[in-house]
Inverse folding.
């Protein structure tokens, strides 16, 4: 596979022209995911630091809070955007696109796909394809992000930054790939987050002008509403890949290491009931007992009441009955 940004082995040092070409190639890959081939062999599984620059910049942007300070409206915006986008991720990227546990119109699916894309966790097709592979190969060598094989940091964030992980496995998502608007979101997956960042900056500048009593401005709104909210959202989401396959209880004796973890369920709006979910991924609900708080499921029921979604698939009685036995506490990963 050609790598235009690499110099030939015989070259003594990169020329200015090749350095510019490397930068141009990286810039294109940040914007247009269709121009990023996966290198052969182990190179496909090494972190692509150049391409990871926007991800790293998102983290560094949080540090600017020491200059911009805080205000109730900026912190409130960060919390609201966390909640809205977490719901779009868990309700739609996960339970709708990846598992088809309910139905929605093309317009509703697109609106929530756009909100999900604002999370900076790539497009809905990319997300669903990786997640379907996770279920198919959970905690085997082929799992894209198993802590069993490559440890915590790999399962948490490392895998996300490799050329192999940047690619979308189209063979897993024929049902979703037929929508051109979803393919567009997937190809240009940085556009929606960029628009959100610009909108927050513009809103903050507007508020500083029209409502100075709120004590905010464009930079503060950008740092809280975009950088901090999106970074926290990312790490909360991927705890399900890393911590929910390590810490918690196993109600069901699944082939993987998935766990039920109430703390993770709280911050991810219900995704922490991960052992339930691995045992039966086909229901819109992941908290199987009345006390297993599943905020996303409550939100989906509200959308169903409003007529925006329908056909929420329930948890079958046999699944509940099977989980009523003694809790499985063995740790399959002790080897
Ligand atoms: Zn899992
Ligand atoms: Zn799943």
């Amino acid at each position: 596979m050609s790598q235009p940004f690499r110099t030939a082995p015989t070259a003594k040092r990169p020329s200015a022209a090749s350095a510019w070409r490397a930068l141009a190639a990286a810039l294109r890959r940040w914007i247009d995911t269709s121009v990023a081939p996966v290198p052969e062999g182990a190179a496909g599984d090494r972190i692509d630091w150049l391409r990871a620059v926007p991800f790293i910049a998102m983290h560094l942007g949080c540090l600017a809070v020491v200059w911009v300070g805080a205000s109730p409206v900026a912190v409130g915006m960060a919390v609201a955007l966390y909640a809205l986008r977490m719901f779009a991720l868990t309700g739609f990227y996960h339970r709708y696109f990846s598992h088809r546990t309910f139905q929605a119109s093309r317009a509703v699916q697109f609106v929530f796909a756009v909100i999900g894309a604002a999370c900076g966790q790539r497009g809905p097709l990319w997300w669903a394809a990786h997640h379907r592979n996770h279920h198919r190969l959970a905690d085997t060598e082929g799992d894209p992000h198993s802590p069993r094989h490559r440890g915590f940091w790999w399962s948490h964030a490392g895998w996300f930054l490799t050329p192999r992980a940047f690619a979308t496995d189209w063979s897993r998502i024929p049902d979703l790939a037929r929508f051109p608007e979803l393919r567009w979101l997937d190809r240009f997956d940085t556009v929606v987050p960029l628009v959100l960042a610009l909108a927050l900056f513009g809103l903050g500048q507007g508020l500083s002008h029209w409502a100075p009593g709120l004590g905010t401005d464009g930079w503060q709104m950008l740092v809280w509403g975009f950088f901090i909210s999106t970074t926290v959202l990312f790490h909360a989401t991927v705890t399900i890949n890393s911590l929910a396959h390590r810490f918690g209880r196993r109600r069901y004796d699944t082939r993987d290491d998935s766990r039920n973890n109430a703390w993770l369920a709280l911050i991810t709006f219900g995704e922490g009931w991960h052992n339930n979910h691995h045992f039966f991924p086909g229901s819109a609900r992941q908290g199987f007992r009345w006390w297993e708080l599943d905020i996303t499921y409550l939100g989906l029921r509200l959308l169903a009441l409003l007529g925006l979604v329908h056909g929420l698939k329930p948890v079958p009685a046999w699944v509940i009955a099977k989980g009523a036995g003694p809790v499985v506490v063995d740790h399959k990963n002790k080897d």
Notes: Residues 68-322 form one domain.
